[in-house]
Amino acid sequence: MKGVIARYRKFLPITDETPIVSLQEGDTPLLRAYNLEKKFNFPFQLYLKYEGTNPTGSFKDRGMTVAISKAVEKKAKFVICASTGNTSASASAYAVRAGLISLVVIPEGAIALGKLSQALLHGARVVAVKGNFDDALKIVRQICEKFPVELVNSINPNRIEGQKTAAFEIIDALGRAPDYHAMPVGNAGNITAYWKGFKEYSVVRPVLLGFQAEGAAPIVKGKPIKNPQTIATAIKIGNPASWKKAEAARDESGGVIDTVTDEEILISYKAIAQCEGLFVEPASAATVAGLIKYTKKGFFKDATKETIVTGTLTGHGLKDPDRAIAESQKPPVAEPTLEDVVEKLKI
Ligand code: F0G
Predict the structure, then answer these.
(1) Whose CA is nearest to atom 12 of ligand 1?
(2) Which of 81, 258, 285, 322 is most buried when burial is the number of CB atoms within 10 A of its CB?
(3) Does residue 186 line the site of ligand 1, with CB under 6 A?
(4) pLDDT band with cut points at 50, 70 and 90 for residue 337
(5) Residue 1 predicted with pLDDT over 90
(6) Distance in Å, CA 304 to ligand 1 centroid
(7) Helix axis angle, 243-253 relative to 189-201, nearest 10°?
(8) Beta carbon of 187 within 6 Å of any ligand 1 atom
(9) Average confidence score pLDDT of the chain
(10) Taking Cα atoms as reference points, which of 158, 249, 161, 166 lies closest to residue 209?
(11) pTM
């Protein structure tokens, strides 16, 4: 069965009256990362959930199929979101499919090129505010109080319902829950969703390890960050909407939410691409960066090769091509001759 509603309907708030809006999201790869295990001396088995293969290139599609289906059921005409990019790409695509108008508010100049191009081409009404994501979300919430528009940020519980299916898929693929699960934390909806999913699907649950970027780590620092900074624009968030729920997920699972630096994120970003052939966006690399940090710290000292750690790679690398180019060598230009090309290829 294709699409998360078709596969996991009985776990979702779907009734006979709900029109299903799907782009056949979900069913993403869970890949053993042998080369990363070796490179970073991980004392455990690492499996990566590659969410970049979702229709719009991120995990947001799992939540959006449910949120947009429910919006259509409610006879909504407009959907709205604030976004660091991926939510807007997903909302815009699913809105088109459902015949809804998508309204998007983004922080000016802080959205990766791929994501902006998606929302624009899908015909969303996009406004860039001179502020950050938190400012955009505040305005969007105010709009929802005044106008008949459906909010599709992860404050909408239907988003969380859909996103929890990633945890189901991990358990289905492994035949059991992992021992640990690592993931990035931004607005904190996804860690909330994974914990809900793990709880609903298994009595044995993983310890959750959430990672925020050092310059955008309000949960770790225990206070909102006025001017969050990180190259991982997807998680450049200073006041997460699901803050309390993320803390509950962390505490109930016996886990941690901690920081990784931009430098650590970039090391992982390149390693994931160069060891495993997986092209992810920088925010996704926070997952592996956190596992490297925690391995070095001795956090996994009791782990064995039977220990299973899973990690979410939340979004596709093509979302942020500027970052990939910035982190790479410019290709040398050759004369159109066999000799020069061979020389430059260093064969
Ligand atoms: N990774 C990526 C690629 C994301 O786009 C996001 C969030 C996260 C991780 C963090 O997930 O917010 O549930 O804790 N992106 C949102 C957006 C904020 O607007 O696209 P979270």
Answers:
(1) 187
(2) 81
(3) yes
(4) very high
(5) no
(6) 31
(7) 40
(8) yes
(9) 98
(10) 249
(11) 0.98
